[in-house]
Specification:
Blueprint: E1 11-14, H1 24-37, H2 44-62, H3 66-80, H4 87-101, H5 111-118, E2 124-129, H6 132-142, E3 150-154, H7 159-169, E4 176-180, H8 183-192, E5 196-199, E6 220-222, H9 229-232
Parallel strand pairs: 1-2, 1-4, 2-3, 4-5, 5-6
Pfam families: Hydrolase
GO molecular function, one term: hydrolase activity
Protein name: HAD family hydrolase
Length: 236
């Protein structure tokens, strides 16, 4: 990575889940618990695929987040059980969801230290998607909420969602930098609209957020750690 003197945004947005704190491992753990619950009906692979297909089908209705995930688990379980979902299984699925909502917030290494540096020079905001109440809960529990000028919990992260957000903030895309772990949600929509994006890979990525091609763009940067961001911005 080399410093880039032309990268001088007026505002920097950070994704939340798997950029600031752990998230996807909790969904993976929940899926394994669900597979175990439904193991008498289908193979592990079939249960996993059924749950994934149901999630994707329901995204336009429920959106992203734990609550929609729980509803998709219930729907999947009922179909797997041919409409005969027992009260015990139903209660067990609800417990999985409640356990997810009660997970402690674990900041990723270097997040707080990096934000303290960057926030001295740039307005920083959170631009994430998911359940509004849960995302605000995680931000509160993280202990870093006071560093952000604005919190945006988006329905999705496509071009229209970013356009709406920047219009409200009165920021041009040429002055906007997005930092996140998802190439599909945090990078592609932003650079396609003329903004800049920094990708910081996380060790695991939900299948729905993966892309199968390489991105090459003058406004696209990849860092191995969030702690490299101040150097990219010529702050250190």
């Amino acid at each position: 990575m080399t410093a880039n003197r032309s990268l001088i945004p007026k505002i920097i947005a950070f994704d939340a889940d798997d950029t600031l704190w752990d998230n996807e491992p909790y969904f993976e753990e929940a899926e394994q618990r669900f597979i175990t619950l439904m193991g008498d009906f289908l193979s592990k692979q079939s249960i996993s695929q059924k749950l994934y297909d149901t999630q994707i089908k329901n995204l336009p209705l429920y959106g992203y987040g734990i609550k929609g995930y729980v509803l998709s688990m219930i729907e999947s379980a009922n179909e797997i059980a041919n409409g005969y979902l027992s009260n015990e299984l139903y209660d067990s699925i609800l417990l999985i969801g409640k356990d997810m909502l009660n997970q402690p917030v674990h900041l990723l290494d270097g997040v707080e230290e990096t934000l303290l540096v960057v926030a001295k020079y740039f307005p920083v905001i959170v631009a994430t998607k998911g359940d509004l109440k849960d995302q605000h809960r995680k931000l509160h529990d993280s202990g870093i909420g006071q560093l952000f000028h604005h919190i945006e919990v988006m329905i999705d992260k496509n071009q229209l969602d970013y356009q709406k957000m920047l219009k409200r903030l009165e920021i041009d895309f040429s002055d906007f930098l997005m930092v996140g772990n998802s190439l599909k949600s945090d990078v592609l929509p932003v650079i396609e609209l003329g903004g800049s994006a920094v990708h910081i890979p996380y060790h695991t990525t939900w299948a729905h957020e993966r892309i199968n091609y390489e991105i090459k763009h003058t406004n696209f940067y990849t860092l191995q750690s969030i702690t490299d961001l101040p150097k990219l911005l010529n702050l250190i």
